[in-house]
Amino acid sequence: MVETNVGGRDRIVRALLAAVLTVVAVRTLKGGKRKTGALALVGALGFGFNATTCFCGLNETLGIDTSEE
């Protein structure tokens, strides 16, 4: 079984942040601000990955486990 360390409210917040950053990325890319849009897109992908897989490398490094909430 794959180890998980993201769950509960933490997972919901990460999913919401992914959605918000996706909107920001699309709007800024359409507005011609490529660096800001790309940075927002990378953040959205990261938070989306964390929410989908229930795993965060930074949480693992820091010893944080929110999957038991």
Give the number of helices. Answer: 3
SSE series: HHH
User: What kind of sheet is the major sheet?
Assistant: none
User: Can you count the beta strands?
Assistant: 0
The helix content, as a percent range, equals over 70%
Helical/strand content category:
mainly alpha
**How many separate domains?**
1
Low-confidence stretches: none
Give average pLDDT, whole number. 95
Radius of gyration: 14 Å
Distance between the termini: 19 Å
The geometry reads as elongated
As a percent range, the share of strand residues is: under 5%
Describe this structure in words.
The protein is an all-alpha fold and 69 residues long. The protein has helices at 8-30, 34-53, 57-62. Helix 1 (8-30) runs antiparallel to helix 2 (34-53). The model has no long low-confidence stretch (mean pLDDT 95). Keywords: Membrane, Transmembrane, Transmembrane helix.
Chart the SSEs and their pairings.
Layout: H1 8-30, H2 34-53, H3 57-62
Helix pairs in contact: 1-2
